[in-house]
Amino acid sequence: MAKTQNVLFDVQGPRARRVTTVLNVVGVLLAAALAWVVLGKLAEQGQLDAAKWSPLFTARTWENFLLPGLWDTVRAALLAVVLSIGFGLLFGLGRLSQQAPVRFVCTVVVEFFRAVPVLVMMIFFYLGLGRSGLVESTNAPFWAVVLGLMFYNGAVIAELIRSGVHQLPKGQREAGLVIGLTPSRSLRMIELPQALTAMLPSLVSQFVVILKDTALGYIITYPELLASGRRLGAGDGNILQVLLLVALVFVLINYLLTALAAWLSRYLSFRTSGPTRAAEGPLAAEEAKA
Amino acid sequence: MSDYLTDFASLFEQYDVLAAFWVNLQLTFWAAIGSAVLGALVALMRISPIASLRLLGTGYVNLFRNTPLTIILVFVVLGVWSQLGVSLSSDFNQNFFNWAVVGLSLYHAAFVCEAIRSGVNTVPVGQAEAARAIGLSFLPAARLIVFPQALRGAITPLGNTLIALTKNTTVAAAASVAEISSLMKTMIEFRPDVIIAIFLVVALGFVLIVVPVGLLTTWASRKLAVKR
Predict the structure, then answer these.
(1) pLDDT at residue A77 is higher than 70
(2) Looking at domain A60-283, which of 1.10.3720.10, 2.60.40.420, 2.60.120.20, 2.60.40.10 is its CATH number?
(3) Superfamily the domain B18-179 falls into
(4) Which end of chain A has the least Cβ crowding within 10 Å, N or C?
């Protein structure tokens, strides 16, 4: 609380402390009232019945639906992570190239894929791959999810690499040139390693985005966690409860990943001359992506 | 080649691409207002000295930021509307539209909140101390000194959130709203011969909407940057 609070709020005197206590109680009551209304509505519709919740904790639910769904989510996300790092490195370095035409082409590619919604790319690949016969039609949804994620997140990672290199202190490059390295060798040997270390926390945050975006696969019939959850809920008549559980699984995984990113950013700040905080730089809010 | 172009042109007679894009813009507009109001409220809660409100705000952000938007939009339609029977309009399609706006607002409010908070974080404590030193009390100090600077610091993340929101309106397809991504699917299914042209039209449509917003934010954040 320390920093934001200090800007706006002084250390409190006795009167302000009393007001704070009263408002604190009001806040608790407000939260309780909200919970009461929501639970009341749920109870009214019979959504709190044990029969609706107990199927969530059976082995069948997890073995046949949720765990296979989670595996399909993770499988697509992992492959997308690997491919987008490759894509990002290629185009990120392209944008830092000494050759103006290479820079131009890479800029256009990166800006294009950052502007197109992931879902639009997924639908295109889903229907395109399915028809083209390049992959088996049963595999089309999987590859559509992976490719859609790769192009968008690869473009974001390219930007991360570019801004990571630009955020290094100028002296790093100058020192590289002074000891006789060519600009591209200085980039590869001095700047890039530090930039990659500095961007690692942002990269982990980007995994959160990728993992969340795999849920878009639901719309193109990829059997990931949300889709298998829906299948389960439709069969058992407890779709609301299943969706809540699925959301909870996502929240838990993403929360852990976010915590990992925060830890990494503290741990790595001693190992690079660039800023490691994921919240810095122009891409801070990129994670708002679905 | 000219055959291809004729085929392609006939597409626009068959399908109303602009009307579908218009739905996305409307979703963006209403959800932007919704998430701005809700996000500002949550941000206020998170920077207040009141512990219970702060906890609520933090919980809100962690919950909605880490849930996929697709789940939220499926949930409002399959869970809240069809299971709990909460309807937002007597008109069938308008109901889905309204629920999509609610879902988009709930999700992006978490990001608006974080954008505002990061804006407040850019204001050095010395500014507030100086405000108090010249005798301003809480509200004038907040209104005259802290918020103008905080808002300028929040332009870039707010702009990024708006861009993300614009693109995310396509996910409203999961809430049965007839917008551009579902139209694109229909178009490709019936006219697979011009699939690449269809994709490029939709993609370039988004480039046309998103890139100016990005340029505008960059320009505004540079122009209004607080030099420190």
Answers:
(1) yes
(2) 1.10.3720.10
(3) MetI-like (1.10.3720.10)
(4) N
